[in-house]
Write a structure and sequence with these properties.
Elements lengths: L2 H24 L1 E6 L7 H16 L4 E6 L7 H10 L4 E5 H4 L18 H9 L1 H12 L4 E7 L4 E5 L13 E4 L3 H9 L3 E4 L5 H7 L4 E4 L1 H6 L9 E8 L3 E6 H4 L4 H35 L3 E3 L4 H6 L1 H8 L3 H9 L2
Parallel strand pairs: 1-2, 1-3, 6-7, 9-11
Antiparallel strand pairs: 3-10, 4-10, 5-8, 5-9
The chain binds beta-D-galactopyranuronic acid (GTR).
Beta-D-galactopyranuronic acid binds next to strand 3.
């Protein structure tokens, strides 16, 4: 190789070597997290939001999704989001209630008549008020959008056909005293633990059952750990949140914040469509795997949880009247 050629080759290499780290540095990676696996409605809708944000900002940002609880359970991930170690988190409102008590109005048993009622509430002014409360709280979280977690029902190793069948059964609940109180009011024995611990706890007999929606019951494999009966109590209809760390939010330009909110709202609507499909799909899969779906009379479950609504709802009496009035 002549000197001139060597020089050109070296210069080209240097350009590549120089350009690559620059380009890598220029792109800001947003870490997103979810307890659910790839393909789950919440994960898919959040990933799409990330792609839209990347395109709209001409590649200034890129979202990297950490699904399947790889960054910890929801409580831990909320804490990581508060300090900015996670930038975007999709979480149930359940554990958010432990850090922003004002959202607990949506976490109460039977506060919504059904899913359609819940959707009408979160899409309207009350949903926005709760989002504003999260954002105004000292929790350092910025709520971007709602997502749908359907209705939670009981799944157990022994069938629950009436309230009496639940007596003394140890049932895993999410980490928020409100949920443990709910299970105890139903006559069971509520035990708080992280989602990722439920499978082993079912296998080893630490718990006799848990409660969740059909997509979660299927994708977490809990039905293979002995929980073969799904009693359709619908006792909790808890919306979920897509939140951004306030640390990250404050670094976005006002235009980027507007984009984030817009794409958040779109993700809310997109996830809902995916959600409805997944409930149908996973209910069928659970049935095919031998899970018995039990229709229960929900009235005794509603009545038994009245003390929980009285205790936790005392702070929200006006709001609860307004929620009940939403058609
Ligand atoms: C699911 C929900 C998760 C998580 C989980 C749980 O339905 O989507 O965010 O809260 O339940 O029971 O911990």
């Amino acid at each position: 190789m002549t000197f001139r050629r060597k020089f050109i080759a070296a210069a080209a290499l240097a350009t590549v070597a120089f350009a690559a780290p620059l380009a890598a540095q220029a792109q800001i990676v947003l870490k997103a997290a979810d307890v659910h696996p790839t393909g789950y409605p919440t994960v898919a809708a959040t990933e799409n939001l990330g792609k839209k944000f990347e395109t709209a900002t001409n590649g200034k940002y890129k979202m990297q999704m950490f699904p399947n609880s790889v960054l910890g359970d929801e409580k831990t991930m909320i804490e990581q989001t508060q300090i900015g170690a996670i930038n975007i988190l999709r979480t149930s409102l359940g554990p958010v209630g432990a850090v922003v008590p004002e959202v607990n109005v949506f976490n109460m048993p039977f506060v919504f008549r059904n899913e359609a009622h819940m959707r009408a509430v979160i899409d309207g002014p009350i949903g926005q008020e709760i989002i504003d409360k999260v954002n105004a709280s000292p929790a350092r979280l910025v709520a971007l959008a709602w997502m749908d977690g359907g209705a939670r029902s009981l799944y157990t190793k022994k069938p629950v056909r009436t309230l009496a069948d639940l007596k003394g059964q140890k049932v895993r609940m999410m980490g928020n005293p409100l949920f443990v109180d709910t299970m105890n009011a139903l006559g069971g024995n509520g035990i708080a633990m992280g989602y990722g611990e439920v499978f082993t706890a079912l296998q080893t007999g630490v718990i006799d059952g848990a409660e969740n929606n059909p997509p979660s019951m299927f994708t977490s494999n809990h039905y293979t750990a002995g929980a073969k009966y799904y009693a359709q109590t619908n006792h909790l209809i808890i919306p979920e949140l897509l939140v951004m760390s306030k640390v990250t939010w404050d670094k976005l330009t006002p235009a980027e914040q507007t984009l984030m909110k817009k794409f958040g709202r779109e993700a809310q609507m997109e996830q809902r469509v995916l959600w409805d499909k997944s409930v149908t799909e996973y209910t069928a899969k659970l049935k095919a795997a031998g899970v018995e779906f039990i229709q229960v009379d929900q009235k005794p479950f509603y009545d038994a949880t009245a003390p929980v609504r009285a205790k936790y709802g005392a702070a929200f009496t006006d709001l609860m009247t307004r929620i009940a009035a939403v058609k």
